[in-house]
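Subject: two folds for Thursday's group meeting

Dear M.,

Sorry for the delay on this. The cluster queue was jammed most of the week, so I only got both jobs back this morning. I'm pasting them in the order they finished. Each block is the input sequence followed by the predicted structure tokens. Could you check whether the formatting survives your parser before we put anything on slides? The first protein is the one we discussed after the seminar.
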Amino acid sequence: MVNIIPIFVILLSTLLISSHGNAVESPLCGGRVFVENTIVIEAPVHEDCHWDIQTQEDRILVITALSGNLKEAQEFLAIHDGSGKDSPILIVENQKTHERSRKDLPEAVYTTQSTANIRFKKAPTSNLQLKIQKAVDCPFNLGMESQCGRIIDDVSCYCATFSKRNHASQTTYCTDHNMKLLTVESYEKEQAIYAAWGKPGFWTSLTDAQQEGQWIWESTGTSLYPGYENWCPGEPSSGEPNEDCMLLQDQWGGCWNDGGCGFTTDAICQAIP
């Protein structure tokens, strides 16, 4: 007779730890889960269920409700910042809002570390699903002349610095704060930046310094072409020498201009999970 118990345990373990982008749903009462990108857990049908949640060490966790209201859900559960027995409880009302974050983001709680413990005190009266994502920690500023916020989504972070520096210095500034100089991969992302900070000159990480005409996003090492682009009319101006770096500029409603990398202007740093 085939022993099916070990097979069941393996399949169950796979269900609980497999979290590569979509959802982990289990009828069990609690468990241990590693969040690679996103997981979804169902509220139990009975009380005293504990979930130990973990992600990579240099990231934090953000928890939202897919169904129901997270603030109201706190009647049924407690979200602890960390996995220790005496970890503090995270409360929706106590979450600080970044100055430039989108106003339409869902109610959420953010941990301060890479682990959390969710303890269901009693079974919810209606269906409740919690969405748990890996996120970057977002500073509230990077100094006096800066603003930060979750301007794209609830897991990434963007900080504008209004201290004018050349391209190399802004790149170093971002790196020193565990971020990278901006990339702009879509129209939606560019418009979100303008909505947050208007359209002054901002250095980005796009450059063709290595080979003329071969534009590369330095922060990710990816080529611009094929991909989203929004050059101002007549740009990039290949006839001009030493214009090897791209900045967002307030021309024709906001577009891209290539300029000399030694020019000093503002910049935007980004951190993406």
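Second protein, same layout:
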Amino acid sequence: MAGNMSNTAVPISSSLSKLQSLNGLFAIYKKEGPTSADVLNALKEALLKEAGVQNPNPRKRKKQSLKMGHGGTLDSGASGVLVVGVGNGTKMLSTMLAGSKKYVAVGELGKATDTLDATGSVILEKDFGHITRIDFEEKLKSFTGDIMQVPPLYSALKKDGQRLSVLLKKGHKVEAKPARPVTVYNLTLQEFKPPLFTLDIECGGGFYVRSLVDDLGKALSSCAHVKELIRTKQGQFTLEEHALQEGQWTLEHILCALQPCKESDQGVDCSNLSEADT
């Protein structure tokens, strides 16, 4: 996990100017619960406070003294790798959206929800006793490769400038987006203990694990929803090696983790950070 470092700490400048000079990409760990935007704002607030900014408000973009964004939204109920761009690194985030991603998903057979995951309300229950592991693995074959997928209604996709999930929560009627091409590089069943099952997924950009699990349930003459979702890899960043935990959201750790836009002198000796900071 990112942050396995020695026990000798050496102070490093954490001034606002140093923070504002950063350009590149790094990864943080998003926990289950908050939205990706909430997590990014918490990160910016922590860094601005460390840099000495009084009462920072990361949500006020026009007055923001730190240019930062994330690539590849994780649902509030999901956890794992969230790639962050800082400075000119924000221009590289579109590449992260299109790159390969890996997930571990725990699904539950027999129950469908309006959001296609455990945060929603159950809208359908069906028997799943007829489904065997062999049946399940056979169905996975039809969801591997280049496939067509309908995005969930509850998603970050937008209509008239507003997210579909926000419109639905406001009571607006929302039509499903048309099916679109997505790519699934690898899809394997790791565990099958009905009603629960665990999938390992490697996919391309624009893919929704919630839609996959919902479609799988239907294909098996039942229904299903995502109970737990963890993103373990996004582009070159992995959960085990690169994702900074909340306790590591400091300028010093980011300097060590940063993948710069181009060669620069932003790197530091990461062997000097202490375990207490991890």
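Two things I noticed about the second structure. The chain has a mean pLDDT of 84. Residues 83 and 199 are 22 Å apart (CA to CA).

Cheers,
T.
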